[in-house]
């Protein structure tokens, strides 16, 4: 992979946008690498994913100077490019059988902001910012942002972010509920985000089930979600981790979960 890097620290997979020369802006090669990394992840032993950026930025959105984007025909087919290249990646992220922690170490703009808020736990350094940059170049929000932002920060704030296209500093993002944790600098961000990712990776299999319940809830009625919770609870109750959790509780010791 040229513009993404995938490493492992124990049970935590660390996936980085790796094109710092352009603040990790997304081009065709990065999309290919991203898709390949997510396919590799599904076949790995990782139990949590930490997604971050190399250098000073998290992801500065689409790389407008990449490849044939200057071609007028390609500009007219931006939506087709989303369906063909971005949507499969976003759906793979949604369907990953592990929790996702994002560590936003700098600019998260355009679709980079969409990737950032896909995290189940979103961490950011104090110098990071979020930007719905689309209307600045005459486009509409994409990457699922019109779905996620109203659910994360409310209708009015989502409209404000998308229509005015103003920077949202990390400290304000914390106040709005867009992020979960704020760290003073990049070193503290990476160690703090890794600590969270390791805690999730060492947790029971039910953690992955829980994130899927939340994603599925957006399609269901209350009654349907109650039924899905019951079905998923049946599945969780058959896992080794459930047996270990109960045994550890009764024996007054810390549980040692295996993710099975």
Task: Note down, in words, how this protein is organized.
With 260 residues, this protein is of the alpha/beta class. The chain has 2 domains: 198 residues, 2-enoyl-CoA Hydratase, Chain A, domain 1, CATH 3.90.226.10; 45 residues, no CATH class. It is 48% helix and 15% strand. It has 11 helices and 9 strands. The strands form 2 sheets. Strands 1-2-3-4-6-9 form a 6-stranded mixed sheet, with helices on both faces. The chain has a 3-stranded mixed sheet with strand order 5-7-8. The radius of gyration is 19 Å and the shape is globular. The two termini are 30 Å apart.
List the SSEs and their pairings.
Blueprint (H helix, E strand, L loop, with lengths): L3 E6 L2 E6 L10 H15 L5 E6 L18 H5 L1 H18 L4 E5 L2 E3 L1 H6 L4 E5 L3 E3 L13 H9 L1 H10 L3 E2 H7 L4 E3 L2 H16 L4 H12 L4 H15 L3 H11 L10
């Amino acid at each position: 992979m040229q513009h993404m890097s995938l490493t492992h620290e124990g049970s935590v997979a660390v996936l980085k946008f790796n094109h710092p020369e352009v603040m990790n802006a997304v081009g065709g090669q990065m999309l290919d690498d991203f898709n390949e990394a997510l396919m590799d992840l599904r076949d790995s032993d990782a139990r949590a994913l930490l997604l971050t950026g190399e250098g000073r930025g998290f992801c500065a959105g689409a790389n407008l100077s990449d490849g044939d984007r200057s071609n007028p025909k390609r500009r007219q087919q931006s939506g087709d490019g989303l369906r063909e290249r971005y949507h499969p990646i976003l759906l793979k992220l949604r369907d990953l059988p592990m929790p996702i922690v994002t560590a936003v170490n700098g600019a998260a703009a355009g679709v980079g902001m969409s990737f950032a808020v896909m995290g189940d736990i979103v961490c950011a350094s104090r110098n990071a910012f979020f930007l719905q940059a689309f209307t600045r170049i005459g486009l509409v929000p994409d990457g699922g942002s019109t779905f996620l932002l109203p659910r994360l920060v409310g209708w009015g704030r989502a409209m404000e972010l998308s229509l005015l296209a103003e920077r949202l500093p990390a400290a304000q993002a914390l106040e709005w509920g867009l992020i979960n944790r704020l760290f003073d600098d990049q070193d503290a961000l990476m160690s703090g985000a890794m600590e969270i990712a390791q805690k999730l990776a060492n947790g029971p299999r039910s953690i992955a089930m829980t994130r899927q319940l939340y994603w599925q809830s957006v399609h269901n009625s209350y009654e349907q979600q109650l039924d899905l919770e019951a079905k998923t609870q049946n599945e969780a109750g058959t896992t080794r981790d459930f047996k270990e959790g109960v045994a550890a509780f009764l024996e007054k010791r810390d549980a040692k979960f295996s993710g099975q």
